[in-house]
Hints:
Helices cover 61% and strands 6% of the residues. It is an alpha/beta fold.
Amino acid sequence: xxxxxNNIVTAAVAFPFIAFAITVxxxxxxxxxxxxxxxxxxxxxxxxxxxxxxxxxxxxxxxxDDRSAVVAYAATPQLFPFNFVREFLAQTTFNAGDxxxxxxxxxxxxxxxxxxxxxxxxxxxMCLRYYFRRTWWQTLxxxxxxxxxxxxxxxxxxxxxxxxxxxxxxxxDLMLNTLGAMVGFWIVGPALRxxxxxxxxxxxxxxxxxxxxxxKRGLSFFIDVFVAQTLSSxxxxxxxxxxxxxxxxxxxxxxxxxxxxxDFLFYLLCFVIVPVITKGQTPGQMILKLRIVRPxxxxxxxxxxxxxxGFLYALVLxxxxxxxxxxxxxxxxxxxxxMLASVIADHRAALVVCWIALMCxxxxxxxxxxxxxxxxKRPFVMxxxxxxxxxxxxxxxxxxxxxxxxxxxxxxxxxxxSLIEEGGTPLSELMERAGIAVADEVRAWVPDPAPVVVxxxxxxxxxxxxxCARALAEAGYKTTLVTPDIAxxxxxxxxxxxxxxxxxxxxxxxxxxxxxxxxxxxxxxxALDDAMAIVDAILGTGFSGTELREPYAGWIRAANRRRxxxxxxxxxxxxxxxxxERADHDRARRSLPRKVKDAPFAVAVDVPSGLSAQTGALAxxxxxxxxxxxxxxxxxxxxxxxxxxxxxxxxxARLVDTAPYTARLREACGDR
Length: 672
Ligand SMILES: NC(=O)C1=CN([C@@H]2O[C@H](COP(=O)(O)OP(=O)(O)OC[C@H]3O[C@@H](n4cnc5c(N)ncnc54)[C@H](O)[C@@H]3O)[C@@H](O)[C@H]2O)[C@H](O)CC1
Ligand SMILES: [K+]
């Protein structure tokens, strides 16, 4: 086994170099995707790379010294499947009835190499399922391809580096390695319940990406100082080379003052002039996608940038100037000094100690506040931010905050739809895009095709649901669409024609889409039990009143119950029935038991059904969603505090570039 450990040591030695080479592009990719660099993901990815390197090194090392040597045992590929079994049986002393032969068997090279060959790709299979969320057949295919790559490296003498193969191409290795990948895939199945859900890791990363953490801000500040200082050094260096230093001295101008002024100008450029031009971003903030705004996320004014960084400049510079003042006082000239100066000169050492203590306390308070803001997920506010009435937010958070701050009333949304239609985009096209946006959200959470239930009402919200169902079925999801009535009898347009088109497209193309028309409670519950995702396209902006009529109320109860009480497992019927009768399930999320582990992902179209898009009033029951995909603009009801636990995270699907239409709408409203 020694050769194996040696190879792993080689991998460990080579890993830092490879890790270093992938770090920068990997970090940039992560940051661009999530706006943050999640540590769990980083650990997984780095250990995965390390593992693949170990595996490959085990396959190709040790390298022979002679590049043209013929290695006898590797010369002819081994093409008989199960050769290792034959060889083992021919050579073994194994006797099932004699335990003393068992250990020897394990030490038999044919046995331990077979076990090792299975183990080699087991982590790959685990990772493919857990991290990359691949299905069994994808794992099989990838596992086989990786193995083939390994074996071909051996067959071709490391792709032609060696004149002859120096390790054996063996069909048994191909089979055993691929089997190993599948073993990894299977054993990770039960472990999935214990491991943190990688999709939640992504979600957390995205959430972290929304926050302007102290790290991001520190880094962007560092970049800015670096840029300003580099530019300034180049210019001052240039002045020096041009002989300006001696000119200045001959004129009696302090060169130190000149360099300080040049520094100051470049700091002014980076921290004030550039933000004025870019509407709130210093160079470092442009790279890290941060932005200086007012606390309500509206754009800041030029004097606020000046105040923000002016105070910071003073806060950093003043202590340095003070220190310089203390140190440069000469005690021997005390008699000529004023009272204060002589006291300072007399206690210089003590004052420097005080200064250091003060600076340490300041740095410590910054660190403590940075950690606290990271733990409590709150913004990190500094004194200069308060004084200038500005905050640093991520670009993403600024966008969301501005959208949230400008919701459109329900009748404004209708007016917007009409404007968009006049602008040349028909409502049926909007519906198509809306349905696809919801399907994309489902696919982001449930990446592998799985059973999905779409609850569709008979209005246009239901129309979005029909499109979503078709898009999911086209992607291979086994989709069940639940509707109160057949497509012909849908009440609204374009929902009716859309539903009819989806229906005929599903049968023409043989899509895995089944339609349940007004199913009874048991049939619906069966469909929900199987579902990995539930789409609520029952009611959108057209919902009125305070109560939900049947059958919608029953559908929502069934969906919420599936989420919070699990599927109708054996022995749970009685318990659940009682709960159902007491109507406990339509209590707010806080008072419900924790979402059950196998709960399907629940996504609401436009608004959760039962929540009034205009007022935020809640009906009993109201659909409880993990995410809401809202169309065109936020609605006032979605941003009400009581709405959050029903909406989950809100995604805005703009469907078109709404900015020109919204501007016209606001103009029209202003005119009124
Ligand atoms: N208009 C468009 O072109 C687009 C709309 N989109 C989506 O459409 C909905 C709004 O659609 P609308 O047809 O106006 O209303 P709803 O589908 O939300 O609901 C109407 C439907 O509901 C019934 N109803 C009303 N109140 C109740 C109640 N208390 N109990 C039971 N049933 C009720 C009513 O009778 C009607 O039948 C919008 O949210 C978007 O999702 C697009 O996305 C794009 C194009
Ligand atoms: K809905």
